[in-house]
Amino acid sequence: VEISSLSEKDILVLRLDLTDRSSHEAATNSVLKHFGKIDVLVNNGGRSQRSLFVDTNLDVYSAIIELNYLGTISLTKHVLNHMVQRKKGKIVTVSSVMGIMGAPLATGYCASKHALQGFFNSLRTELTDYPEISITNICPGPVQSQIIQNVFTENLAKSLENSGDQSHKMPTARCVRLTLVSMVNDLKEAWISDHPYLAVCYLWQYAPTWAWWLMNRMGKRRIQNFKSGV
To answer: Which GO terms describe its molecular function (predicted)?
Structure first.
């Protein structure tokens, strides 16, 4: 059994709402007041989606962008100001394989993750004068978590009725370990997934025509299962 050497002063837990952007500066300042510095920011807040675009209200898309994208870059802005002053730090953002590819039933979620990929890949190019500030995008595939229970659906008031079996997904501990390895080594981007999802990432990157063909075939079945409640 490992015994932690952390004391109470080494731990600070703050409630944070990514959609309440006016609170992000105060939260950042609270952390700085307690620890004196911020070495690593891990952006890991967000919600997924399970609904067809034709059935989905536009305010769902607004909420997804507000939370997954704007909330993330708002918090990043306040923490980055401190890191620029120190000329040191790591900003790690949990994107998704959906930030690399497209998939049915997740148009808004994919859009928000593509936005994060574009933003942080661009931000990295603005920080060339700060070589000790690293930007890492983590792109997990399916991972065992509660994200499915909390997905957006066709409207903001509706929750998903059937979250399905998660046994085929990557264990949470393995995803965390690979994320930490990526952070320590300052990787710019890490795809953390089992096959066949990892293979589809490679197809999407290097043979997109084949990826589109495959996704259309897979997507048709996925939509049928969704409509059948599977």
So the answer is: oxidoreductase activity
